[in-house]
Amino acid sequence: MRRYGKHTDEDDIRTRPGRRGTRPRTHIRPKHEDAAEGMVLTVDRGRLTCLVDGRTVVAMKARELGRKAAVVGDRVALVGDLSGQKDTLARIVRIEERGSVLRRTADDDDPYERVVVANADQLAIVTALADPEPRPRLIDRCLVAAYDGGLEPLLVMTKSDLAPPDKLLELYGALDIPHVVTSRDELENGDAADRVREHLDGKITAFVGHSGVGKTTLVNALVPEDRRRLTGHVNVVTGRGRHTTTSALALPLTGAGGWVVDTPGIRSFGLAHIDPSRVIHAFPDLEPGTEGCPRACSHDEPDCALDAWVEEGHADPARLYSLRRLLATRERTEGD
């Protein structure tokens, strides 16, 4: 066995390379100026299906993006194999700035926010008038999230053959929210889809609602080419529906130039991420009246200037009531 002294001059000693190899590291990252533009259609276990030049491409997020996640609706830049053929994989190297973001938390004490969809123009809140019963607090929470994220709300009421919409329309009348009332027969014969489609032309619309309200059935009627997902049924004991959509999915709206984003049925809609001071921006008739409010005014306290603003006739009292009801949603449970 060869032994070496303290002053060896052997030149055949083998040096083991470091764990990271001998290639020098650099902080310079490629700019990917030739990357193709795409839109995220759905996300499933780390794989993102994107629309690139009219074809669907499966991609994964590049390591250089770190913990930044891409969601349905994101505009992204992709490199790699963009053929869209089976067993090919592209790489998302950039996520463009978002124009709007619909976010929620699991509950009001959860600090971790979840982005539901990006770059949507409109939020369609689907609620049944009966079977299951409407949940106004959940609707209020969806409205707050829409206003905070920069989306225009649309209220879609289903199953009008089981209960009239008058009470719910009166509750939200002061908010001037566009609405559509449908029945089960209209969902089956296509009339409901036609009337809802009038509000979707040229827009990206995210559909939300708790299970059993007919959301996925309506989406399937709007996009008849995609009927792979089964509709659910309401549990007669709990009054809750079975989840039929497990991840958000963007679908092109035939002939209207818009997109429909079907989202999983929700049990709760936490607002831990919402800054209540931003909700007032959705009430342009009330916002000027806040100039006389004390600092950090909650708009629901004795010194709030909005009371005098409304008494002077600058705005409808019903609007102030609606604002305060929405601001109070974080303090209530959604089943109230």
Please outline the helices and strands.
Layout: E1 36-44, E2 47-52, E3 55-61, E4 75-80, E5 90-95, E6 101-105, E7 113-118, E8 122-128, H1 136-149, E9 152-158, H2 166-172, E10 179-181, H3 184-189, H4 191-197, E11 204-208, H5 215-222, E12 249-253, E13 258-262, H6 306-311, H7 317-327
Parallel strand pairs: 3-5, 8-9, 8-11, 9-10, 11-13
Antiparallel strand pairs: 1-2, 1-4, 2-3, 4-5, 6-7, 12-13
Helix pairs in contact: 4-5
What report would you give on this structure?
By secondary structure, the chain is of the alpha/beta class. It is 18% helix and 23% strand. The chain has seven helices and 13 strands. It has helices spanning 136-149, 166-172, 184-189, 191-197, 215-222, 306-311, 317-327, and strands at 36-44, 47-52, 55-61, 75-80, 90-95, 101-105, 113-118, 122-128, 152-158, 179-181, 204-208, 249-253, 258-262. The strands form three sheets. The chain has a six-stranded mixed beta sheet. It has a five-stranded mixed barrel with strand order 1-2-3-5-4. The chain has a two-stranded antiparallel sheet with strand order 6-7. A hairpin with a 7-residue loop joins strand 6 (101-105) and strand 7. Helix 4 (191-197) crosses helix 5. The longest helix has 14 residues, at 136-149. The protein starts with 35 loop residues before the first strand and ends in a 9-residue tail after the last helix.
Strand/helix succession: EEEEEEEEHEHEHHEHEEHH
Q: What percent of the residues sit in helical stretches (DSSP H or I)?
A: 10-25%
What is the rounded Rg?
26 Å
Tally of separate helices: 7
Give, in spatial order, the strands making up the sheet with the most strands. 10-9-8-11-13-12
Query: How many β-strands, per DSSP?
Result: 13
Low-pLDDT runs: 227-244
User: Which structural class best describes the helix and strand composition?
Assistant: alpha/beta
* First-last Cα distance: 83 Å
